[in-house]
Amino acid sequence: MQSPNDMSVAQAGAPTGVRQMDDALELLLQRLWQRARDLKYVLLFVVAATILLGLAVTLLQTPAYEASSRIEISRIDSGAPDSEDLRFDMQVRDRQYYETQYELLQSRFLAERVVEAENLAQDPAFREAFDVEESDLSPSALASRVSSAITIVPVENSQLVDIVATTPDPDVSALLANAWAEQFLSANYDKRFGDTQLARERLESQLAELRVALEESEAELASYANENEIVVLNSPATETGQAQAGQETLSTSQLSALNQALIAASLRRIEARSALDAERNASDIDGASALRSRRAEAEAQLANLRTTLGPSNPRVLALEAEIESLDRSINTEGGVMSSARQAAYESALAEESELRERFNTARARYLAEQNLGTEYGILRREVDTNRELYDALLQRYTELGVGEAGSNNMTLIERASPPSEPSGPSLTRNLLIALIVAALLSLAIVYLADFFDRSLRHISQIRQQLGLQVLGAIPEAQSDNMVEELLDPKSELTEAYGSTRTSLLSAMPDDARRIVMFTSTRPAEGKTISSLALARSLQRVGKKVVLLDLDMRRAGLSRLLGFNARVNGLSELLAGSMTEPNIVTLEDHGVDFMPSGSIPSDSGDLIARGGLKRLLADLEEAYDYVIIDSPPVLGLADAVEIGHLAGGVVFAMQANETSVYAIRNALARLRQPGVNIIGALVTKVDQRNDEYGYGGEYGYGYTYQSSEA
């Protein structure tokens, strides 16, 4: 019955339920864990130093104050989606839009706007908070400092965004958070309505210029009118409500009024004269008929004058008055006393003379104004032109403000206020960061220590890096006398070699020669004691075994068993000084043994002569197994020569000591056509502190039951 160790080491045909450690990642983690246990004091020092450093940083850090302003960003749809928009999901477009806004919120362009808008270069509080020197007052340097103090935090599942400013001064933090939000909203508004705003600014500038020009031209016109005593009356409006082209002056108005009064006075004078003449002729016998005859003539003349001169002509009016007077004279036949008619006539004549004199005076003044009218008209037209231009631009400005202005799709929801307490440094956060850094440093130390330590540290290295099957892991002896420990059938050493025997027998091909050679990279790796132990283990299961010490330069197995160089052995047999092999029976071990004999000058030549081949053929017929303790591989050619004659080679390697590079070089020399390397045997494994996965739950699970059970 095989022990669990036997089953685990024998990889071919292993029973179900035995734990296998073939997974490379798991083996790597196990090896690193064991390395960490080796370096536990170093790692504890790293952790403690990192925690102390985090504590010191916390105590030395300047207090930081966080102020937060909040804005709302609403996405604007451009209208009905076109064919290209239909290819994108609404969520994708929303995400693209908001990601763009978040990037703009963190842009350097926005930082430069804040620096310029708030004039931070001249703000003493800002310069003190950021410790800004005179040499660092450039807009680029200030923008970098401001940008480093701003953090954009989108509120999850909403359209809200928090703008967080962190500085050593609470007032500066609030100032930067609010300025950042305001400049972002302003930049967005300029981007959306930049053309309209520019047009409004241009119109405002033009309106200001025209307003000044209009005021100057009006002032010049008024000054000219005052200097020349020109009084302008308001123009009467037409039926459409528009002002007449010309404006009436005081002289024009007076002249028109005097003209109308003079016409009326002339009519009264003519009427009085006609009445007086009619009264004087009434005394004639034929007075009535004369009056009627005169009246008929006047009517004829009146009809003619109305046709040629019009009804408003003074002569027409005078004839009408004369006809009326003739009618009264005819009707009254007596009339008024000639004296009364005379007085009325003289009064009308005097009034007409006075009005004519006043009319002539006004006409003279009007003619004088005509000489000044040209300059006044030029000034008047200039005023009118400026007013028309001003009114047109004002109308355009009003229409632009009503029709083209819009509202911003982003809103300042909450302004930042100066915080009352600092937000940092946080002792908990710094200690957490220190622990993370300590963990990373510890992992790096463990990995680098494992990377640069090229000794054989884990069972996985044999499989992954050397490509060998592991036949067994031999624990380190518990006493100085390993031979005595092998004599104890219940010792750990005996049990380990029993497990190795099972793996070896399973790994050897059925048609292979029953000649097993033990070798290693260098001396003192346990191959000698392993060859003896394996021979004993085979003998214990009923096999007839002979053990050969072919490490003739050192004769380690011979000395271990108490044979010195004076005892004839293999060197004499191969040299031809002996004809029969000297085979000694080891009563304590139950196997036959051929010592090495005297130390030859060149053991490689002795092995290559052909005598060893004949010897092994003879021994193979007489014994079930031939076990050979051969020399190490590096530096000698003996192991390669013997390997060609053996049915299989067991490569022994010492745990935690032998370099993987050295083993790889030795295997490269040994791997030649005709040499069958069965597997590796790991020796001197410390079972009391198995940190490298050779035994226990990390390796092959030794239980040390009797292999014959």
Give a description of the structure.
The protein is an alpha/beta fold. It has three domains: 21-61 and 435-452, no CATH class; 62-233 and 245-424, no CATH class; 454-698, Rossmann fold. The chain contains 23 helices and twelve strands. It has helices at residues 4-9, 24-38, 40-60, 90-105, 108-118, 124-129, 139-148, 170-227, 250-280, 287-309, 314-332, 338-403, 427-452, 459-466, 482-487, 492-507, 527-540, 556-560, 570-575, 603-608, 611-622, 638-645, 660-670, and strands at residues 65-73, 150-154, 160-167, 410-414, 470-475, 515-520, 545-549, 584-586, 591-594, 625-629, 648-654, 677-685. The strands form two sheets. It has an eight-stranded mixed sheet with strand order 5-12-11-6-10-7-9-8, sandwiched between helices. Strands 2-3-1-4 form a four-stranded antiparallel sheet. The longest helix has 66 residues, at 338-403. The termini are close together.
